Amino acid sequence: MNIIGHRKLYYSISGTVIIISLVALALWGFRSGIDFTGGSSWQVRASGIDVVAVTKLFSENGIEHVFIEQGAGGERTLRFEEVSEGKHQQLSSQLKKVYPDLVEEQFSVIGPTISGELRQKAMFAIVFVLFGISLYIALVFRQVSRPLSSWVYGIVTLFTLFHDVVVPAGVFAILGHFWGVEIDSNFVVAMLVVMGFSVHDTIVVFDRVRENLKRITSKVSFEELVNKSMLETFARSVNTSLTVVLVLLALLFFGEPNLRYFITTLLIGILTGTYSSIFIASPILVDIALLKAKRK
Q: For the segment 240-258, what is each residue's pLDDT rounded down to a tens digit?
């Protein structure tokens, strides 16, 4: 099985998906939830809640934009602008007239100061992870110098991270624009998990390349050696990802509805990460090595 030999096809697939994701992010961006913009989150439960009627009721009370997320059974999560406790009680009283069995499960307000702090911490977490990964790759592969320096492995790993993050980000930009799906702090957590999983999968392949470089002394081309390393780790990478994907699918269909977008992010990111670790990261190493050889 010659994976490296078909790398242009894999590049084309990834390039198309990345371009679509970047265009979606540039045109529409994210629809931020109250974690990042500030506002009110109200979780209620009642039978027969009608989205149109609730939206109209809120509009009559001066709240024009309300995002209603459906949960299990009669559970609904309402997200809207920041309101006072008095306004909350007024809305509660009016809703209970329409839905006598209404039960308030949770009401919370996040102010602009807290939301701004969350945005700042989210960005810091992502930058910290990228820096830590770069440092780790440089240390682990510091003894690798043939035919590529250790820093090349780090750069390729960071590119695959970009690949694995931008795809779910683009998907959520599309979901936000057409279906009103918001991102919150759970989205950031999911992206960090995806980055960790992606790095793990990529390093498994790179580590086998490093071992084979030390072990194989015969005149085998770097392209052949990388392809051999990929085939040796292929089953492990696919089986590991498959077990995680099966668990996520079970959680997506049978788990807590409020976590479905968190699970969706993980699912897209892990599938993308498995693909990039096998079909993108190692082929890029080969192309860089070939480019380096041509310049000599």
A: 999 999 999 999 888 777 7
Claim to verify: residue 94 and residue 118 sit in the same structural domain: no
Distance of CA 39 to the CA centre of its chain: 24
Question: Rounded to a whole number, what is the distance in angstroms from the first to the last CA of the chain?
Answer: 30
In a shared domain, residues 291 and 255: yes
DSSP 147: S
- How confident is the model over 13-63, as pLDDT tens digits? 999 999 999 999 999 999 887 777 778 889 898 888 888 888 999 999 988
110, 128, 143 - which closes a domain: 110
Spatial distance between the Cα atoms of 287 and 169, rounded to a whole number of angstroms: 27
pLDDT confidence of residue 200 = 85
Asked if residue 204 and residue 130 are part of one domain, the reply reads: yes
| Separation between Cα atoms, residue 67 and residue 58, nearest integer Å | 11
Residue 28 shares a structural domain with residue 84:
no
